[in-house]
Design goal:
Elements lengths: L2 H8 L8 H19 L5 H11 L8 E2 L3 E3 L5 E3 L4 E2 L3 E4 L4 E3 L4 E2 L4 E3 L1 E3 L3 H6 L2 E3 L2 E3 L4 E2 L4 E2 L4 E2 L4 E2 L4 E2 L7 E4 L4 E5 L1
Helix pairs in contact: 2-3
């Protein structure tokens, strides 16, 4: 395994232009293209593509095309989760989505972060922090979840919100940055 891939998998700073990561990207491009083109295919065929693309995949997961991700294999999705059109899951770090989650259109789950130091940023250094979405969460349309964020079970995040910090279980949060409005 290449040094940069090892660094990425360990959550350390890495350069994403590693040849092994480029091969992973090519794999993802091909599988996402197959999945997104198979909208009229039988559910079993679409599930087989998802099972090849993603990590652990619960029963009855539905993802509407188009769907985009960085690598795929660092994403796990619990049973009965629904992901609407236009999802972007950048999974340089693990993305763990619980069961019975509802994800609105154009939601972004982002794990990569970049250097603040201008020279290191110009050189392309990045690292990634995991994103965790608890069971029975609802992310409204256009929600952006930033690197390192955990959203507790049964929480609802309003459309267009930007989640920059962890949210507890069982709350309604909205805004940019997302703030808890009330318990549910």
């Amino acid at each position: 395994m290449g040094t940069n891939k090892k660094l990425m998998l360990a959550g350390d700073w890495y350069l994403p232009d590693d040849p092994e990561l480029a091969a992973d990207t090519r794999r993802r491009i091909e599988l996402c293209a197959r999945y997104n083109a198979a909208e009229l295919a039988e559910p079993a065929e679409r599930r087989a593509i998802l099972a090849e693309l993603l990590g652990p995949l619960g029963e009855d997961v539905r993802i509407r095309a188009p769907f985009r991700c960085d690598y795929g294999y660092r994403i796990s999705i619990g049973a009965r989760t629904f992901v609407n059109f236009g999802a972007v899951f950048l999974d340089a770090a693990p993305i763990v989505i619980g069961a019975d989650v509802q994800i609105g259109p154009n939601v972004q789950l982002l794990t990569p972060t970049h250097e603040l130091d201008p020279e290191r940023r110009r050189a392309g250094w990045e690292r990634a922090l995991p994103v965790t979405i608890g069971d029975n969460v609802w992310l409204g349309g256009g929600v952006i979840v930033c690197p390192g964020v955990t959203i507790g079970a049964d929480t609802v995040v309003g459309a267009g919100s930007v989640v920059t910090k962890d949210l507890p279980a069982g709350v309604l949060a909205v805004g940019n940055p997302a703030r808890v409005l009330r318990a549910l």
